[in-house]
Amino acid sequence: MFDDFIQSFWPYTIDGLALGAIYALVALGYTMVYGVLRLINFAHAEIWMVGTFVALGTVQLLGVSSVGGIALIGLVAVMALAAAVVSGGAAMLLEVSAYRPLRKKGASRLAALISAIGASIFLQQLFATVVVPVVFGKSEAQGKLPVNEHFVERTNVIDIGPIVISNDKLIVFLGAVLMMVALDQFVNRTKLGRGIRATAQDPQAAVLMGVNIDRVVSATFLVGGAMAGVAAALYFVRFEQAWYFAGFLLGIKAFTAAVLGGIGNIRGALVGGFALGLFEMYGSSIFGSEWRDVVAFSVLILVLMFRPTGILGESLQQARA
Amino acid sequence: MSGHDSYPIPSRIRMERLGTLRRNMMRVTGAVAVSAMLTMGVAACGGDDGGGEGSGNEVTIGFMGDLTGENSGLVIPPRNGAQLAIEQYNATNPKVKIKFKPYDSQGKPEQATTLVQGAIKQDKIVGLIGPAFSGESQATGPILEEAKVPSVSPSATQITLAEKGWKFWHRVVADDAVQSAGAGDFITSQLKAKKVATIHDNQEYGKGLADAIGNAVKPKGAQIMAEGVDDKATDYSATVNKIKSFNPDVVYFGGYYAQAGRLFKQLREGGVKARLMSGDGSLATGLIEGAGQENAQGAMLSCGCLIDEAGTSNAKAKKFATDYQAKFGSPVAIYSGEGYDAATAFIEAIKAGNTEPEKINQYLSTVNFEGVGKPIKFDAKGELASQDIYVYEVKANKMPLLGNTKEAKVE
To answer: What is the pTM of this model?
Structure first.
């Protein structure tokens, strides 16, 4: 049972980190919106899904095939930028159309949640029935099938004893870490970041101090969406597939990562994402792949039993003071 | 501001937060339930063009399966085959015409049960071709049995379906026991594998098939290893690592092509050199598209179905291949012949003057004709009397027939 785990510890760790990096980036969107609005934005998974299709479109538009080495890094940067812009825009649009009207009328958070589910189903079906057939030239019956594009030439860039890392996994990991550091700096160092923190801490006081709440909320969705876009581009490099329903499972996992790390806490999302990725891999190794999700969610329950607010606990406002 | 850090969070607030989280979890469950209901409702309304009352000289035959979902590539060919058979029959201007009515279950058991009840009560179907998959067949079997409506599945291959004692259930395809015995024999004697890894998608069909393959190769002295993956997952790196350290000669996947494509791609990219193999659920070119042509080369597929594009097996197969190509503009594909044969079984019953479901069912137990791929004759359990398994191999972007498992030769 443990033989495989001990023998293949490094491959599992590397795959766990590459997977966890994507969870963490998507989890940031959940956690930021929760921190500011106390709302679980369930349509966030679909914002990520939109990003995977933008990445696919970018590759098709550039018409590249078997990209490796430095060129791959450039391509990922272009894909990530395109996906971040579109996903960020889509997230802002989502906020304006699905949440802001409810917020202005003082509707309950439950109403916003229903609205989130509606937006999520709408985006899924929009891609399955319109975008995939029209934009990507598939037949109507193929709209619900994953769209594949093979363009990455995989090589092992690091090969030291048991540690073998392929170029795509390295790019995913480094790209994600880079984005997370950038976000952390943005929230902690900029004026808008201070606005976000202030709103998270006390919305009323923030207004009195001259913070434009609508702007802060828009910025939160934009940044969270952009992170999801980058995550989508990285995911696309790794798996080379876009699918209208792929957000379902990934969304649940990313949300779990956010809760695991402490929802509302940006660094918590990072810790939660990597922890979940590693737990899934180690769990699969020890108990078999069928038990992957069981292990991951059992760990979540255990953590919440002893630390109800997640690993890092504090929320956005208290994380740094 | 830093002073705030040392403030302990009052326990009341902590509880409150936990409460919010709990409520959120409940909302998630509720959300899933609501969305499931929504999709079911939409599908139940879709494609309804006024239920056809069996008006003496017209009866309705239904077809059920995943027509728009992820695995519709396996179900559209048999739907086309069945439609072709019925149109050809109606064109002969018979006494009793047949109305053909497709039901899109998206392959989901819960959706199929709702649809089948409507088909029986409102549309008054006299027979059902399908359901296409094993999971939905399992779910609808008792309902059809109670309503005494016969069904003939072109493609449900799970072993236990024939063991339920259902009297109104039939299939025109060999089950997974026959498939796994045939494929298992092929793996050990033709491919000469000493170590076999099986992977399944944790679904009725896939797990049944993969487990049966394991059981079939074990007595022949092969070392086996079993793995399972989530059918909605896209990341299989844990499985790839496990397979790599086991280092098998053959990897057999039980599941459908959309996932097989993803899995084969990641196995190859992860450096697994073993011969990749899968079953009927993956016998569609979507597998090559998903895995990438290079990664899919040499992958083998076992199936109880005969896809005979050139029509070499008999004259009927040749005529069917030509007619199919002319009508649908694409060559015969997986289970298209089985769909045609299933419809023909019903047509034979109706030709003999049976228009009541129970009478048709009685007739099906005696039906005996040469289908487009194989002889159609049911035993008492509803299984075909004679069963063969065929092997296909991925070459370039096609999956040509390699032959019967007993005769197929591998370079």
So the answer is: 0.81
